[in-house]
Amino acid sequence: MASVQASHNRSDAGFSLVELLLAASLGLALCGLMLQGLLSDGIHSQRLSRLYRERANQRRTLELVRSDVERAMAVSAHPEMESSACGWAGRKPVLHLALDGGRSISYSVGAAPSGIWRGQVLMRCGPAFDLYGQLSTSVSPQNRVVIDGLAKPDGVWNGCQMLVPGAEELNGSGREGFAACLDPVRQLVAMRLFQVFGPVPSGGGDSAAVQRISAEATAAPG
After folding, report:
1. Which among 35, 98, 133, 206 could disulfide-bond with 202, CB atoms 3.0 to 4.6 Å apart, if both were Cys?
2. Domain contains 23
3. Best CA proximity match to 127, nearest among 148, 144, 147, 146
4. Cβ-based burial of 98 (10 A; exposed 0-12, middle 13-18, buried ≥19)
5. What are the tens digits of pLDDT across the range 75-116?
6. Is the C-alpha dihedral spanning 12, 14, 18, 19 positive or negative?
7. How many CA atoms lie within 13 A of 204 on its CB side?
8. CA-to-CA distance for 189 and 169, rounded, in angstroms?
């Protein structure tokens, strides 16, 4: 009796082990690429979010300083020779504003008063604000942190002469996180905030670049 051999097509035999391993490797590589893309998008979103947040903080801070300058009677050309109602506490005096009634507002930059703040801080010593946004006359001067995260720039601020030609740097503040210069004739003040923020961790040991954020403004007593 003749034996019959059954023939099988390759398609009926399924995938070989080599083919399965190759497919798995390609799948893992694709998943890795997708995960890397998601992480990169996450880091970029964090950087943009921090950039917008800190720029908004800088704008609010400069608006506060500008409003104080505009309500002042005079800006001192030598803030280091003035006395702050709150004391300088080792910080560098940058702005000293004379108000009516013998009151004053002073701004200083330096070490934070406590560990809850980042880097250097800008301190405001002066009258508090009432419910209507006006300077209160019924309370003692208050010393408060206006903004933190300030850092010393790599070089001297060169934007002073561009904003106020002929202005003089106030107390060598051009190398500080808060810098100011004054035209003593026009009493026009130019100021600059400078912050540096470290890289955003990616979760895999890599990091994004350091962010340097600055803002400038001018003001004069009104």
Report:
1. 206
2. no
3. 144
4. middle
5. 999 999 999 889 898 999 999 999 998 899 999 999 999 999
6. positive
7. 11
8. 10
Query: Whole-model pTM?
Result: 0.76
43 pLDDT band, cuts 50/70/90, is low
Instruction: Indicate whether 5 belongs to any domain.
Output: no
CA torsion sign, 97 to 99 to 104 to 107?
A: negative
Measured CA to CA, the distance from residue 122 to residue 88 in angstroms comes to 11
11: in domain: no
The DSSP output letter for 118 is -
d(C-alpha 106, C-alpha 173), whole Å? 14
Give the domain extent around 65. 39-219
Distance CA 179, CA 216 (A): 9
Please say whether the beta carbons of 197 and 172 come within 8 A.
no
Integer angstrom CA distances of residue 191 from 23, 30, 61, 219: 61, 51, 11, 9
List alpha helices for the chain, DSSP H.
17-71, 160-163
Instruction: Please state the domain count of the chain.
Output: 1
Residue with tokens 């990169």: 40
